[in-house]
Amino acid sequence: MALAGTNNITAAGGLQDSGVEASLQNFIPEIWGASIMDYMTKNLVFANLATDQSGLVANGGDRVHMPKHTELTASDTYGTATVETLIDTNLAFAKTSAIEDSYTLDINQAIHSAIAITDVANVQTSYDVMNLYTSKLGYALAKKIDAYVGIKLFEEVAYNYANGTDDGDQAGNTVEINGTHDAYTITTAGVSNMIEAIHTNDSNLEDWTLVLVPKCYAALFQLGDFARYDGVGTSFGTEVPFVSGYAGKLAGVNVVVNNNFQHYGAGSATQVASSTPVGNWTSNSISDESEKLLGFLVHKDAMHIAYARGMKARVQSDYHLESLSTRFVADSVYGCLVTGSSTDGNKKVFAVINPVS
């Protein structure tokens, strides 16, 4: 299948009715590309929580180096000497290495979604009909991108992921959201654990997002302490509900639900999507990952994503004479990086779990 470049206009079909406007007989990549990108962006969940670093590769390239800073401390400027002179002050400068440590974001993921349409002219004359195709293409790209970001988060906080010996850089960062093994509920004690974890990490509640699996998110609405059904979505009174619609707040923390969680399964090295993911969150001596994952608690600076120049949602086409149809391919080239560690003050991702049996 030979594809035309995005800046080329290729014939959309064979013999067309002379009454069809000539310009509509040509594939218009700008219209399709913009619509696909719009639907893709709207359907991202994990990836929309990431900081977009695409501007750093706007002039080309496939790698971004991001400095890995250590925390600086402040000292008293003046010592016991008189303040009239600066000779005996405590003023000092910490020396760092000549080569600063850094994170590397590689743009190394390439995905596509393809479709063939028999009469592109008629499709382009109807905004609603064209949206049927662009929404499907955009959703397909979004689901694949979100799956990649989701497994990167999984690997970041899991022990022995992919049924191997590898541990994530932030393995051991956990929040027990309830006190019952294998339960999907959220309790007041669990909310207290979350708040404690955030403040112990020297960070603010508003900097975090709680991303839950559907079963755990739905359980919130069974609790009168967290949900006011008359206040979901819009509430401007003095009593603001903890949960407000699809992306509300729980004790000051943004809450999002995602049905595209990924895991490797218990004792498996194969990545799959699951609404009830499992892994190993509490011990690096277990190879059979079977502890339930209820979600992730993610800092706003934890994830970074970058798309290759002109490749966030590119669309190309050619005319296929044998099938009398125009064939479309929408593709995206990108990369994702998760930062942080298991040290207080630099924890950027927590696994939301329940107690081990």
Structure explained in plain terms:
- This protein has helices at residues 29-43, 120-125, 127-157, 188-200, 214-219, and strands at 51-52, 63-67, 102-106, 109-117, 174-176, 208-212, 249-250, 253-257, 262-263, 272-273, 278-279, 291-292, 295-299, 303-307, 314-320, 325-338, 349-353.
- With 357 residues, the chain is of the alpha+beta class.
- It has a domain at 168-304 and 340-353.
- The strands form 5 sheets. A 6-stranded mixed sheet has the order 5-17-13-6-8-7, with helices on both faces. Strands 1, 4, 14, 15 and 16 form a 5-stranded mixed sheet that branches.
- Helix 1 (29-43) crosses helix 3 (127-157).
- The termini are far apart.
Strand content: 15-25%
- Mind summarizing the main beta sheet? 6 strands, mixed
Task: Evaluate the radius of gyration.
Answer: 25 Å
Uncertain segments are 1-25, 230-247
Order of helices and strands: HEEEEHHEHEHEEEEEEEEEEE
Shape: globular
- Using DSSP, what is the number of strands? 17
Separation, N- and C-terminal Cα atoms: 54 Å
What is the arithmetic mean of pLDDT? Answer: 80
Helix content: 10-25%
